[in-house]
């Protein structure tokens, strides 16, 4: 047992998600993420259960904890009443707090999560806006989406869910500033803002400078694939 | 004080206890809910670890019931009074005096339909171990379409060790039962492949490990360490299983013709209120002490035996029934001593009681079984 594990143990999601794992593999067998990636919730649970800081650190630095899609299928099946999904969330928070996420390719995508979903929440009270989903990045959405993307404003007028109208129905409404302030206060209080700041800071440390972080971000904006940004020298991982 | 002992439940535990009490010279009334004695064992074919015919066990125990009054198709609806002067009222309206009562009401098999993801009651080829035993008995192990299966998966721990169904305990018999039926299937359908999906193999009794080993060495039964996550039906009626082989850490798919769910035991505590018995968090009856008073309930004069107090194999249930008989005899003997105003802190050994005759007996003392 060590410091990392002690910190993990304090997370309420860990406390709720981990009773004791008997390594039965039900979670891994049902997990959609395990089906396609080098990932197994059972292995994650087993590593965490070892209480070994070295192994936990390795996990926090790896791609693995970022593969989970948070579908919670594992929770419904576990014979021990565990929730690997919740333990994963606790691990992600730990990984961000310590900056370990920046060590893995999937982990570094937290920058987009922070700048897109996180920022949207603070600015608009909504995780994903239609205008975030550009056809260039999501060609699989096809022609219809492309048309909608280009004619969003007038189409939403037709449907009576106009863009950016205060308190209107639909995902593109404008939430009154006073209510947004409440959301921001909640994010502040619960530590979400601190996590967001930790993401920016660790990325800066990993990539060498703020300018490099912007380059990384631009690469993603332009190509939709962060792997097109090349890590420099000793930072390669 | 009357001289009768009421045994509730005519499974192997209740029958063994009744027979032994009779042998000790007591009057015994055995109350059984069903029309036949034998409990769950009457539904089994050959039992582990030695493939004794279940019918042989029941016949043997039945043979020891001479002179005992058996009331079938009845249960107990009310118990009045205190030991040694209970009044037991049956569902048939009869009132029976009893000096002591033994509750040996056994277990209920887990309802496999509660594990929806295993498809019992949804897919035709998802069956329970109980249905399989019936098929084995008739030498007719076959799929829903009437063909002998070529590939069978046996799922351990169905309804046991599973917080999702609120049964955290191990049912103890299903691992060895899996090994047993796997061998029987192999004997009846030699080219059938058998995969046992387990979390831990718990074959704990004398001869059990040897049976496990034989199933692998001699019959090639396969054991995969992983719990079934879910089963899906294919168009041809076969079942696609999703699990992880946790020893090689590989998620795997297995297609089988038949899925056998090794159902565990669920406590039967339907008499808890009537007999004023405590129930443990596992929903089996609580005993006065788990180590040294495991046939006593907390209620004076009411005793417990067999799977009513937790999962047991047949031999253990029989032994437990006979152990309860000894406890009851000692308990009633203490009243004898009381009546003779003897010092109760000194308890005579049981054998001397037999030798001296028991004043509650209306039959001549039987020779000591020991
Ligand atoms: C699938 C399966 C396979 C098994 N195979 C084996 C094996 O091969 N070998 C082995 O050693 N063990 C085996 N066992 C275990 C074995 O079945 C038990 O040890 C045995 O049945 C226990 O006997 P019992 O008398 O305690 O309970 P039961 O067999 O449950 O008998 C209880 C009796 O009480 C009666 N009863 C219940 N409630 C009342 C009431 N309110 N009033 C009156 N009567 C009542 C019931 O009708 C029943 O007759 C198996 C168990 C399972 C589930
Ligand atoms: S919540 Fe995550 S770990 Fe659990 S089944 Fe879904 S993807 Fe897998
Ligand atoms: S399902 Fe539960 S007990 Fe089984 S391996 Fe996953 S977390 Fe562990
Ligand atoms: S005996 Fe085996 S199959 Fe039955 S509950 Fe225990 S471990 Fe599971």
Automatic annotation (TrEMBL), chain A:
GO cellular component: plasma membrane
Species of provenance: Gomphosphaeria aponina SAG 52.96 = DSM 107014
Keyword annotations: 4Fe-4S, Iron, Iron-sulfur, Metal-binding, Oxidoreductase
Domain 4Fe-4S ferredoxin-type: 12-42
InterPro entries: 4Fe4S_Fe-S-bd, 4Fe4S_Fe_S_CS, HdrC_iron-sulfur_subunit, Helical_ferredxn
GO molecular-function terms, A-Z: 4 iron, 4 sulfur cluster binding; metal ion binding; oxidoreductase activity
SUPFAM superfamilies: alpha-helical ferredoxin
Pfam families: Fer4_8
Protein name: 4Fe-4S dicluster domain-containing protein
TrEMBL record, chain B:
Transmembrane segments: none
Pfam families the record matches: Pyr_redox_2
Source organism of the structure: Gomphosphaeria aponina SAG 52.96 = DSM 107014
Taxonomic placement: Bacteria, Bacillati, Cyanobacteriota, Cyanophyceae, Oscillatoriophycideae
Keyword 4Fe-4S listed: yes
GO terms for MF: 4 iron, 4 sulfur cluster binding; metal ion binding; oxidoreductase activity
Domain of life: Bacteria
Domain FAD/NAD(P)-binding: 4-117
Keywords tagged on the record: 4Fe-4S, Iron, Iron-sulfur, Metal-binding, Oxidoreductase
This protein's record includes keyword Iron-sulfur: yes
Protein name: CoB--CoM heterodisulfide reductase iron-sulfur subunit A family protein
């Amino acid at each position: 047992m060590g410091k990392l594990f002690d910190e993990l143990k304090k997370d309420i999601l860990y406390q709720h998600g981990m009773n004791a794992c008997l390594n039965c593999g039900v979670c891994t067998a049902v997990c959609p993420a395990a089906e396609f990636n080098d990932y197994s919730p059972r292995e994650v649970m087993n590593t965490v259960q070892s209480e070994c800081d070295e192994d936990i650190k390795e996990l926090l630095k790896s791609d693995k904890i970022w593969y989970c899609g948070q579908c919670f299928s594992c929770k419904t099946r576990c014979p021990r009443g565990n929730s690997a999904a919740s333990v994963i969330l606790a691990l992600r928070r730990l990984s961000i707090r310590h900056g370990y996420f920046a060590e893995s390719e999937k982990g570094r995508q937290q920058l987009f999560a922070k700048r897109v979903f996180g920022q949207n929440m603070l600015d608009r009270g909504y995780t994903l806006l239609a205008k975030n989903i550009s056809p260039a990045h999501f060609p699989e959405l096809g022609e219809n989406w492309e048309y909608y993307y280009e004619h969003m404003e007038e189409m939403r007028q037709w449907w009576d869910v106009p863009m950016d109208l205060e308190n209107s129905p639909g995902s593109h409404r404008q939430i009154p500033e006073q209510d947004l302030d409440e959301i921001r206060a909640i994010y502040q209080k619960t530590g979400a803002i601190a996590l967001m700041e930790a993401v920016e800071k660790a990325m800066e440390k990993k990539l060498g400078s703020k300018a490099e972080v912007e380059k990384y971000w631009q690469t993603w904006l332009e190509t939709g694939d962060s792997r097109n940004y090349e890590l420099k020298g000793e930072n390669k991982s | 004080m009357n001289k009768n002992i009421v045994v509730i439940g005519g499974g192997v535990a209740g029958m063994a206890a009744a027979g032994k009490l009779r042998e000790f010279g007591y009057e015994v009334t055995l109350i059984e809910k069903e029309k036949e004695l034998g409990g769950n064992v009457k539904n089994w074919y050959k039992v582990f670890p030695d493939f004794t015919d279940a019918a042989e066990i029941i016949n043997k125990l039945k043979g020891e019931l001479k002179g005992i009054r058996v009331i079938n198709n009845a249960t107990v609806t009310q118990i009045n009074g205190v030991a040694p002067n209970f009044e037991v009222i049956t569902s048939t309206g009869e009132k029976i005096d009893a000096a002591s009562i033994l509750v040996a009401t056994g277990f209920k098999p887990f309802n496999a339909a509660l594990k929806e993801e295993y498809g019992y009651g949804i897919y035709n080829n998802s069956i329970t171990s109980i249905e399989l035993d019936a098929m084995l008995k008739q030498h007719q192990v076959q799929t829903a379409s009437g063909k002998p299966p070529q590939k069978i998966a046996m799922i351990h721990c169905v309804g046991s060790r599973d917080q999702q169904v609120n049964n955290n305990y191990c049912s103890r018999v299903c691992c060895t039962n899996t090994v047993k039926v796997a061998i029987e299937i192999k004997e009846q359908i030699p080219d059938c492949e058998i995969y046992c999906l387990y979390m831990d193999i718990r074959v704990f009794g004398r001869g059990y490990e040897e049976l496990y080993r034989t199933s692998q060495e001699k019959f090639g039964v396969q054991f995969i360490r992983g719990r079934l996550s879910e089963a899906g039906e294919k168009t041809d009626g076969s079942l696609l299983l999703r699990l992880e082989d946790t020893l090689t850490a590989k998620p795997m798919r297995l297609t089988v013709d038949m899925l056998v769910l090794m159902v565990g035991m669920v406590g039967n505590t339907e008499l808890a209120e009537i007999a004023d018995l405590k129930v443990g968090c596992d929903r089996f009856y609580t005993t006065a002490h788990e180590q040294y008073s495991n046939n006593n309930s907390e209620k004076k004069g009411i005793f417990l035996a067999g799977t009513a107090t937790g999962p047991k194999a047949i031999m253990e249930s029989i032994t437990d029934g006979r152990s309860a008989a000894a406890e009851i005899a000692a308990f009633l003997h203490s009243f004898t001593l009381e009546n003779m105003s003897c010092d109760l802190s000194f308890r005579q050994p049981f054998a001397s009681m037999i030798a001296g005759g028991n004043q509650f007996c209306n039959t001549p003392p039987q020779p000591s079984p020991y």
